[in-house]
Known about the structure:
- This protein is an alpha+beta fold.
- It has helices spanning 5-15, 27-35, 54-58, 65-74, 98-106, 113-124, 187-195; strands spanning 20-25, 43-48, 76-85, 88-90, 93-97, 131-137, 140-146, 148-152, 174-179, 204-209, 211-224, 227-248.
- It is globular.
- 42% of the residues are buried.
- Strands 1, 2, 3, 4, 5, 6, 7, 8, 9, 10, 11 and 12 form a twelve-stranded mixed β-sheet that branches.
Amino acid sequence: AGPGHATTLAAQAAAEGFKKVVAVGGDGTVNEVAQALLHSPVAMGIVPKGSGNGLARHLRIPLNITSALRCLFTSEAIAMDTLRINGKLSLNVSGIGFDGYIANLFGGDNQRGLRGYTRLMLREFRRFREFEAHLRMGEGNVDTSAFVIAIANSSQYGNNARIAPAASVRDALFNVSILKKIPPYRLDFIYQLFSGTIDQSAYCRVIATREATVTLPAPMYFHADGEPCGKADRFLIEMVPASLHMLSPCEAKML
């Protein structure tokens, strides 16, 4: 199996008439499977086996494998929103800047998992500088410097690091979280990230919108659901409402 193989398998299952297709893995695998199921009646399920499992956590899918499997038979399918970032599918959280830079480095790193990711972030944090950005949204224009511009359909990256605490996959909106570079001594920011209060931080501005264009003076790294996507200097972010049927054990209104 290699990149795109999960998409091929999911497309084959849908073509053969299966009513449900299940992704077993992390957000990258979930994204690949979803690519084959968009705008179809096939319901998608998740058995979380990744390092962060951001979307599964947002959807309240149990991390315990036995419980997750049981949920596949008891959950209702919700009509979930998805995003397109320069044409690339995003279900969970994508980003421009430091997190995109780390994702592109992490993609070639042998030390996967939270520990390897954290080690890489700490090593590269001092080197990476804020960049200038122009954001055009339906609600107005924003000119700013940023360390990260996170594009959030759901609330978290994974491991309960909630970059957009109020995000919903059912409201036809996405959240743009603009983060400044945080001084290393501000440990309270880490607490806010994991406690779901980052939107109260002076280092973070969160804007809910239906569309956005981000223009940069020079190409910058970005990622889609944690998967590296290289560089670009212009980003078109589009909301695609209710475009994927997703199984979740939680009531739709809570997602």
